[in-house]
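User: Hi! I'm a student and our assignment asks us to look at how structure tokens line up with a sequence. Could you show me two examples?

Assistant: Happy to help. In each example below, the sequence comes first and the structure tokens follow. Example one:
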Amino acid sequence: MHRWGLVLISMVTLGVACSTNSTSSKDTRLASDKPSVDKSSAANPDPSKPAADVAPVSPSGGLGSGSTAGSADKGPTVGVKGEAYFTATMLPVLNTNCASCHADPRIQAAVRGPLTIFSFAAMRSKLADGATATGNAFFLKVRNQVSHGGGDRCPNGANATPCKEFSAWWTVEVGGASTGKQPTPAGLVSNISSVSDFGRVYGYAYNPADVKATVSVAFYVDGPSGSGTSAGTVMANTAGDDANADGDHAFAYDLPINLRDGKQHKLYAYGLDQNSQTLLTITPVTFTAYAFTAAGRSFFDATVKPKLAGCASCHTIAYEQQYYTLMAPSPASGATAANNDLINKPAQANNTKHGGGQRCSSVTASPCAELQAWWKIEAGQ
């Protein structure tokens, strides 16, 4: 057996023996507050310390101490640039975002995830299982589009950490380490990234066989092409999140105001290219969007604005500006008349601080009472 294998077995045996003979030892922390595991209790860490504070080991690259990740599993020498990216960028991102579940076996975790996420070889095989940066087995798992015990790890979208690093690794590792270009799958590469609470659709679409060409995207609501209601088209030709493709292939499109009615709808999006159409990835998308209303504006001007006159020294008392604060978060996201950003600040309710102090003695007192009435009009309640 390799001499390092003997060392590893000896270390593990020692840890087990020590944990059997010692029942009172606990973890100690350095002055810098970095977690450190006492070898005498390595198999029985202090449960009072959160698992998220301790980085996991790499399953086959090195044992680590329970407070460090150990060395990364180098795996086969495939895609040197991609492997270098994994070591320099992916391991720190994975440790920061995933270590609370994918933790060292010596650390308690609420949900126990496998340590193979720290293996270059294991993660590369998942990365290669898919045709795009956002359509591979690794990325879909992270976004919870394939069931993931840790949920969606990129709640701020595919262009935010950690997903932006995961997409970049796909481009380097699978898309071509020497050129940075993606392979050429059949048809369009596309995605709907998100639909905002106010009806703006973000996404991208391009033809990998002709990245200089611009793809048009057509939208249908509450049914596919042929049965749904047409909601317009947009050209995918702006800078933005487009899976690192050559050229500009992103788009942002505001849905017609009649679809921003506070009701739930389904959005279908198609990429149109050379007389063919392709349903964009992640569609249909369910959304609920909101827009300014004539009744709400009238109530604001006549009733709310006069009540907010005392706030004009710090704030712009305009319908549009106050509307966006009133509707954040949106009713579809769980906000209520008595619990939204606009009412929480003057009432200093729901753990919200306000630089101008408490302007409502309670959420039912003026001017918060008027704000609640305005919210109900805008929310259609």
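Example two works the same way, sequence first and then tokens:
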Amino acid sequence: MRRGLIAAALAAAGVLAVPAAASAASLQGVVVQKSAHARTIAVAGANGRVLVAHVRTARSARLGAKVTLAGHMRSDGTFAASSMRTIGRSHQARVSGIVARRGHRGFLLSAGGTMLAVQSHETHSVGQPLTTTVTVSQEGLDEDDQAQTTSRVEVSGVVGALTPATATTPGSLTITIGNQSIVFAVPAGSDLGTLAVGDFVEAKGEVVAGVLTLTDIGNQEGDDQGDDNNNQGGDDGGGGGQGGDD
């Protein structure tokens, strides 16, 4: 099994592999971005993974809303929601991605196929994998001053390129999310089995000796974010729940 073989190689390299989440045609998390024009929202799960969801209307999804969506994954790594339900409100969210650009007042985080603008007093390097906690308000995202950041990243997307590793030579894996790509080093000795370009996968990695290194990977037919996917009732056709402004 691909995951077990990767785990063995990573154990030898001193990196712990984490089991991938189970597939499901549901999504739960906190709204951290929305576009009424594009009819999309970005949802951050409890583990920090961000996914862009296509909804019937984004007007009713306020930033910070906890939502449950039903639907399916698209081939481009985004989520197509057939229904959306607001189940609560959160003033904080955990987000995971790659620092794409720095500015005077913060940085842009490439996460789940979108760019999140985060206000911050911290200095993060461009290209750095980052998982951090942000305060969510209607004005946007603000990195918590006391946030514990890690150099781990977790993404779902399509395999764009693959160079298999050998027993002695590392390989590489490119995951494409929308129009963005993230490249992971694949440790020597890892066997990715039948993984092929075009497969939709969930990949996890962390920085090892300055290189973003693959720690776990699994094929995904869907995604379940958050720690409870049992709240599937109360279908509102993608527009119910809590009202909001653009």
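Here is something you could point out in your write-up. The longest strand covers residues 152-163.
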